[in-house]
Amino acid sequence: MTLSSTLSVPSASAIPRHLAIIMDGNGRWATRSFLPRTAGHARGLQAVKRVVEACGQHGVEYLTLFAFSSENWRRPQEEVSLLMRLFVQTLEREIDKLSERGVRLRVIGDLDAFEPRLQDLILQAQERTAQNTTLHLTIAANYGGRWDILQATQHMLKAQPQLAAHPEKINEQSLAPYLSMAFAPEPDLFIRTGGEQRISNFLIWQLAYTELYFTDRYWPDINAQHLQEAFDWYATRERRFGRTSAQLSQP
Ligand code: FPP
């Protein structure tokens, strides 16, 4: 099991081991360029490729991207369809390249809502890359942090029904293995592009002690240099995990 930041003090290094990103601003990028919103998502995919490449070069081990929230179904039908097509095309066209680079792909979220073809492609891509270890790339799709905690609770109680009679025995360690990101350490750095400063129901359990970085830049504009700026900022953070500054400077 991975270490919990509330139960112990994780080690921290200059480069985040796990980076989580809300890729926001695709629509506004398109509007600013007098293009349909869907063009912003297509350009956003180019930024995903740049960031995956840069994370590989920096030695980031886990990269988790919020591609589609459980609330994004509320968007216009045309935009939702385009996003689904982009996911399908990306899985079809990019999986060989990702696999050659040692990327292990996972998709987290309530996948039942997706069309069967997309579900199949996701399963195939996950199986195909299951032995890779260089970069764990996780796409959150139809994902919500509250959904995650609820589904984890349901799975925990199904697996251990005796806990329902003894709820005082439920602790972090009983629930954590059932969360979608149980395979990864908690994110060290969270980036949200597009100027908003909120978590938007992303990894609400896992972000407890994550450093939060917000930039006004729109996601399709993001490149390796911008990622470097976020890493430079991260390297200046004093990660106390509840301790005092004085404690940190003690040998
Ligand atoms: C948020 O911008 C972005 C999304 C809801 C979709 C993100 C998708 C991609 C970057 C492309 C596909 C990615 C993969 C992994 C295949 P927004 O539309 O909310 O922007 P706005 O706030 O300016 O309207």
From TrEMBL:
Keywords for this protein: Magnesium, Metal-binding, Transferase
Details of cofactor binding: Binds 2 magnesium ions per subunit.
Residues binding Mg(2+): D24, E211
Cofactor: Mg(2+)
Entry GO terms, CC: cytosol
InterPro entries: UPP_synth-like, UPP_synth-like_CS, UPP_synth-like_sf
Binding site for substrate: 25-29, 37, 41, 69-71, 73, 75, 192, 198-200
MF GO annotations: ditrans,polycis-undecaprenyl-diphosphate synthase [(2E,6E)-farnesyl-diphosphate specific] activity; magnesium ion binding
Protein family according to the UniProt entry: Belongs to the UPP synthase family.
Oligomeric and partner information: Homodimer.
Function noted in UniProt: Catalyzes the condensation of isopentenyl diphosphate (IPP) with allylic pyrophosphates generating different type of terpenoids.
Name of protein: Isoprenyl transferase
Gene expressing this chain: uppS
